[in-house]
């Protein structure tokens, strides 16, 4: 079986820091290669992979001030589609644009829907539903107008996360700094519980950060650690008393949630989107409805078994489990059993 994996080109695959879609594409690619499969990764030229690497741009456009994002995307997607006949199956991690080629090629395509950025993109998915095989990353993120081949949870490289049985005495917010991710709410939870909070992540909404978050950073109770890479991520996640995830939207997944639990760190999350599928309430964290409930939950975190958090994450969200599920999906498509 010859597999082509189409990764985004905003960031390197895997990303140096932020880049969840690229990270998932990398984790899957490397796991499939380790099983002896013939995999070609279409990604940026500076990507690190054991697969065959094909690229049209040297760096991700988010890291290259001279790059035109749309031009790079068009060249990247079209290159794979022009070579589609070389592969038995195409696995698209690049949102809806590649779907528009699906009726022009004979190679079957699986598309992992990493979320719907806007309802306005749904018509594209609907148009190609009879041609492309869709995989959701949580049951909560399935659109009622689409048919799905499977749900496959995102898989993490569990060996990259150090289990820490005894945490430090701080709370952690790890993710995009954006209103919908609840950065401000996380700070309020920490203040109400009297705990230090470390904020780590890409500043996606600069105005929000400048006007709402930065004035609260005192470098003592509220600390901003920046957009952290793998080593810092491992240390921060494993050392935290709990990860705060007060999302204000129906998040389709949450890599930091799985990563925190893999480190032994419980998660306190607003009960939205995929959170009930990731967090086992009162076992690997707490699902809450408000800032006040979250602050109360902080007091109960020490009741939870950090080892159980690790075991749950390894069982449900490992790259090995993800690769098993996708391998089954490839065979189902190729055997025309859908």
- In percent, how helical is the residue content? 25-40%
Number of domains: 2
In terms of DSSP E residues, the strand content is: 15-25%
Write down the oligomeric state: single chain
Beta strands, count:
13
Task: Give the secondary structure arrangement, pairings included.
Layout lengths: L1 E5 L13 H15 L3 E5 L9 E3 L14 H14 L6 E4 L16 E5 L8 H6 L5 E4 L13 E2 L18 E5 L8 H11 L2 E5 L5 H8 L8 E5 L3 H10 L2 E4 L9 H8 L4 E4 L4 H4 L6 E4 L2 H8 L7 H12 L1 H16 L4
Parallel strand pairs: 1-2, 1-4, 2-3, 4-5, 5-6, 6-7, 8-9, 8-11, 9-10, 11-12, 12-13
Overview of this structure, please?
The protein has 2 domains: 171 residues, 3-Layer(aba) Sandwich (Rossmann fold), CATH 3.40.50.2000; 159 residues, Glycogen Phosphorylase B (Rossmann fold, 3-Layer(aba) Sandwich). Helices cover 33% and strands 16% of the residues. It has 11 helices and 13 strands. The protein has a 7-stranded parallel β-sheet. Strands 10-9-8-11-12-13 form a 6-stranded parallel β-sheet, with helices on both faces. It is globular, with a radius of gyration of 20 Å. The model has no long low-confidence stretch (mean pLDDT 97).
